[in-house]
Write a structure and sequence with these properties.
heterotrimer; A mainly alpha (about 250); B alpha/beta (about 290); C mainly alpha (about 120); A: about 5% strand; B: about 290 residues; Rossmann fold; 2 domains; about 30% strand; elongated
């Protein structure tokens, strides 16, 4: 990791968090770039054969949620032994991961936001409809105001996926062979909330959204509040699992 | 300011099994310690506690006079180097070295100098390094950490003899330039004996012996001579061997003058016991009352 | 370079004594520092220090604070007497014992030694 020289002990946890975010973005920059290009190129190809009625960017932004979960989980899984061995405390690492998660979600959220608005202009210019797959029917997102409101939830959604991935990652490190089972309760909750926010079908296994059955009547504000609460619970769980994790023994 | 180490009634269990049982240990600051023990004796567990890689099941672990667990000012100046190192394998050697900068005391220039000296290519990925080079990289990061308590756990594995020799030389030079507490855990006892000031032998989760290296070197003796004469001395033997009428025994204690004279008069040869052999005998599982 | 058995610090002390006896270290001359000894022989500096401490206690070396260790002016005389005692204890006593075990009369040994002295002159 670059630019760590002259770290000071009391503030290194924040600098590290920012460093992880930067490293992550640098590491995946070509992936992000490829997704960007594809999202704008694919509709152009489709338009040669049929009407474009679906937002391609919507899929890209949603795949970004899973990607974010993998980044959170993958990073924490690798960082725990390496950072603790390098003289970091678990508490410091937890704060770093928090900073990392917030920055990552903000940056990726901003990209998603810009992408949706950019795509709106792009689709408008070519006379296409920027639709999303909402409860069995494909419907346009709506007015500019609706689009902005829709896009502005992405940072929060990325954050909840990041927190979910991190919990599963740290649990997998701590309980080798069993930790990943936390997927079972976490995926349906997060996926259903994501699904319930706009009554849409996020990219992923449909069955995992079964909890949406119970959310049908929920107002958007309630869903958002629940997502915030779930994020907090996931972050607290990750912290709890991390804070006294023993380093695994080296395999002989 | 090098770190002291104090363990009080420390027990570490993995499930029901105790890796360390009720251990008390005090290490003074600024010495080089050798940590010896058979596989599974508890060496790695002990070091893991000192570096806060693990928390004891019960008891107190203090480093530099303070509880080490989750203590950033302390753990940032404690380095435990495990065999093969704790690296992200997908990173380059250079990135691994830069990660060391998480410690405010890390000396990056020194790390690069050592990497060059030990021929670890900076641009290579860790996953592409041989086992020996991985160990060297781990050792390089350990030395460059410039920690106040530096522990090397079997880090020599995979290094060839000339590399090990160069590593010990560098360790000694770094130690003399900047006195700090060092713990070397190894099976190559005779190879490191001259570098040590004190030796700790761990056996079955307990501290079997902890003394100056000289105490160990003066400790044992072998006596070889006519079987009757050897038996007549009435010494408690750690190990014995017979060949025809000749018997050879190894004793753990230093021989006093009268025993030496009686032995000499009876034609018994007295020889020294190397630290390695002494260790083997002291930790022999068939030995009673270790 | 070190044998098993005898503590290393004693071997170093013996070696410094030997250097004083054979003249490579002069009375009043400065001795290498503990760190120089440690680096040269690849040993723990505390071990070198122990050797020095023993030699200071025996009056062979003396310490000048902040300057270093020096060979005492009467070091050679002290060592000569010491060496003589140890020679009898460590070399001659076992020799007599072994000769007796092998049934060699002491007079034979005395004759042999006299012949050696004649050959040297």
């Amino acid at each position: 990791m670059s630019s760590l020289a002259n770290l000071r002990l009391p503030t290194r946890r924040y600098a590290l968090g920012a460093g992880f975010a930067l490293e992550g973005l640098k590491y995946f920059k070509y992936w992000v770039l490829a997704a960007l290009v594809l999202s704008f190129a694919v509709p152009l190809v489709i338009s040669q054969y049929s009407d474009v009625a679906l937002s391609a960017w919507y899929y890209t932004a949603n795949v970004g949620k899973w990607f974010t979960a993998f980044v959170g989980g993958g990073f924490v899984f690798t960082l725990v032994p390496n950072m603790i061995a390098a003289g970091l405390t678990r508490r410091e690492l937890a704060v770093s991961m928090g900073v990392f998660g917030v920055l990552w979600s903000l940056v990726l959220g901003a990209v998603a936001f810009a992408g949706i608005l950019g795509e709106r202009a792009y689709y408008d210019a070519l006379g296409w409809s920027q639709g999303i797959d909402a409860s069995d029917a494909i419907a346009p997102i709506g007015s500019l105001g609706d689009t902005i409101a829709f896009a502005s939830y992405y940072p929060l959604l990325y954050l909840v996926y990041f927190a979910a991935g991190t919990v599963i990652g740290i649990a997998s490190y701590r309980w080798e062979g069993a930790g990943w089972l936390l997927l079972v309760p976490i995926i349906p909750v997060v996926f259903s909330l994501d699904n319930g926010l706009y009554d849409t079908e996020p990219v992923g296994p449909g069955w995992a959204g079964f909890l949406g059955l119970f959310m049908d009547g929920w107002a958007r504000g309630v869903v958002i509040a629940t997502i915030v609460a779930v994020t907090a619970v996931l972050a607290a769980a990750a912290y709890r699992i991390l804070i006294d994790v023993p380093l695994r023994s080296k395999k002989a | 300011m090098s770190f002291t180490v104090n363990l009080r009634n420390v027990t570490l269990k993995y499930g029901a099994e105790a890796a360390l049982a009720d251990v008390d240990l005090d290490l003074e600051a600024g010495k080089i310690y050798g940590l010896l023990g058979r596989n599974g004796a508890g060496k790695t567990s002990l070091l893991s506690l000192l570096a806060a890689f693990r928390r004891p099941t019960s008891g107190e672990v203090r480093v530099g006079g303070e509880p080490v667990w989750e203590n950033a000012p302390i753990v940032s100046r404690v380095a435990l180097i495990r065999e093969g190192g704790d690296f992200d394998d997908s990173e380059t050697v250079k990135a691994v070295i830069e990660t060391g900068q998480i410690r405010p005391s890390f000396d990056t220039d020194y790390a690069y100098k050592l990497a060059d000296k030990f021929e670890v290519p900076l641009k290579k990925r860790v996953s592409a390094l041989s086992r020996g080079k991985r160990s060297v990289l781990a050792a390089v990061c350990g030395l460059a950490a410039r920690a106040e308590l530096t522990m090397f756990d079997e880090v020599h594995l995979g290094m060839d003899a000339p590399t090990r020799d160069a590593f010990y030389k560098e360790l000694l030079a770094e130690y003399m330039e900047r006195p700090h507490t060092v713990v070397l855990s190894t099976h190559l006892i005779d190879e490191v004996a001259n570098y040590l000031e004190e030796v700790i032998i761990v056996d079955r989760g307990r501290i079997l012996r902890h003394a100056d290296i000289e105490a160990f070197q003066g400790m044992g003796a072998t006596l070889t001579g006519p079987a009757d004469a050897v038996d007549a001395l009435g010494l408690a033997a750690l190990a014995e061997q017979r060949l025809g009428g000749t018997k050879s025994i190894t004793v753990a204690d230093a021989l006093d003058k009268s025993v030496r004279e009686r032995a000499a008069a009876a034609g018994i040869e007295i020889g020294p016991v190397g630290l390695q052999d002494l260790f083997i005998h002291l930790t022999d599982p068939n030995r009673n009352g270790a | 370079m070190f044998d098993d058995g005898t503590p290393i610090y004693r071997q170093i002390a013996d070696q410094i004594k030997a250097e004083i006896m054979n003249g490579s270290l002069e009375p009043g001359g400065k001795v290498m520092s503990t760190n120089q000894y440690a680096a040269f022989y690849q040993i723990n500096p505390a071990t070198a220090q122990k050797a020095f401490r023993e030699l200071v206690d025996e009056g062979v070396l003396y310490k000048q604070r902040g300057v270093g260790m020096f060979v005492a002016d009467d070091a050679r005389d002290r060592l000569a007497a010491d060496f003589r005692d140890r020679f009898f204890e460590r070399v001659l006593a076992p020799l007599v014992r072994e000769a007796r075990q092998a049934g060699i009369p002491l007079t034979d040994i005395i004759d042999y030694l006299k012949a050696q002295e004649g050959a040297l002159q």
